[in-house]
Amino acid sequence: MNVRRRSSVAALAATAVIGVAAAPAVAADPSPSATTSAPSTAASGLYGSGDPQFDGVWRQSLALLAQDTAGVVPSSKAVKWLTDQQCDDGSFAPFRADPAKACDAETMVDTNNTAAAVQALWAVGGHGDVVDDALGWLKSVQNEDGGWGYSPGTPSDANSTSVVIGALTATETDPEGVEKNGKSPYDALLALALPCAEDKGAGAFAFQPDKDGKLLANADATAAGLLGALGKGLVTEAGEKTDAASCADTDEPTREQAAANAAAYLTDALAKDGHLKSALGGSPDQPDYGNTADAVAALAAQGGADRAAGPLAWLKKNAGQWAEESGPAAYAQLIFAAHATGTDPRDFGGADLVEQLNATGPAPQGAKASDKASHESKGEEDEKKDDSPFGVWWYVGVCLVFGIGIGFLISNRGKKQQP
């Protein structure tokens, strides 16, 4: 899922690099932030050095959320950068160059950036009014089928509906109770799930129906839809270990069965190469790092960390350069994949993803209190190990003396046995 959202606006600027963490909703894989320079982003509090026009709020939200997930307290300047981007009605656009200027009808606000900002600001805490206003706006633009499109008024799609579900559940709001015309977000999402009887894409999610109303499998939408069906957000943990997922049709599929069907589709798609593929305009298939990272998190959430072991190993071996070139959102995706599988993001294929993410923006405030306590506790335990009145070298000396004594005993015993 190229940071899981694809935007038709961002697609115009995203045609250069496969698998780069992209701006939300219907965008192609590359991220404009990875290829275009922009003035003074770090000084402003923004993560990443690229042009934020298409993905500023998105990459900032993911960076802050990933830092919180990894036990880091983000920079207050970075958090303020994000809150300053909010419009008076509670919505967020991909980027506002002049936050002091009021949003108007030409401000391209959207559900994806708004929902991502909600998840990030709820995680870091202290911004309840911003979160409440954003949730209020999201509810106000819900479609009649219960879902959301990228922009207000556009048809519902699996990615946008899922990221809003993530915002609702992250803020302890039950998506089942957020209805429009008697329809919940889950109703809209399950309507985009392909039945198992399909020859191609059985169990997958479609992004939207095509112009003929047909559902076409989409790996990006499937990873997003799987998490959405489970009521999970961008950050998730490994679910209960289950048997290998299989696609099974029922008259009234449950959310859990739809998630299992999606997991079966992703497992098959990953089986050959260990990664998902992407292609742009006539170019050959290439690894899709972003979608693969999202698939890892989705598979782990549905059936346990072991379900995602193959693609996780592939990411550890191959995703380093992609993340370096793509920037904050890519590092965040890998941190989310690591978290979902119980993997240490500070040792991800030998790379410290947290340190690398931190280096793309203003220095964080430090570690969260719980993480500090954990480190201090470990330090105290280590000290206790060495807290003998004699010290560690006393033990070394005793061992040496003991070893020498054993040597003498063996030597003397050998002499006594000589004729």
Quaternary organization? single chain
**Mean pLDDT reading:** 84
Choose one word for the global shape.
globular
**In order across it, which strands form the biggest sheet?**
1-4
What's the SSE blueprint?
Blueprint: H1 8-11, H2 32-35, H3 41-44, H4 56-69, E1 72-73, H5 76-84, H6 111-124, H7 128-140, H8 158-170, H9 185-190, H10 219-229, H11 255-271, E2 277-278, E3 286-287, H12 289-303, H13 309-318, H14 320-326, H15 328-340, H16 353-358, E4 366-367, H17 369-385, H18 392-416
Antiparallel strand pairs: 1-4, 2-3
Helix pairs in contact: 4-5, 4-6, 4-15, 6-7, 6-8, 8-10, 10-11, 10-12, 11-12, 12-13, 12-15, 14-15
Commentary on this structure:
There is one protein chain. The chain contains 18 helices and 4 strands. The protein has 419 residues and is mostly helical. A hairpin with a 7-residue loop joins strand 2 (277-278) and strand 3 (286-287). The longest helix has 25 residues, at 392-416. The termini are far apart.
What's the short story on this structure?
By secondary structure, this protein is mainly alpha-helical. It is 48% helix and 2% strand.
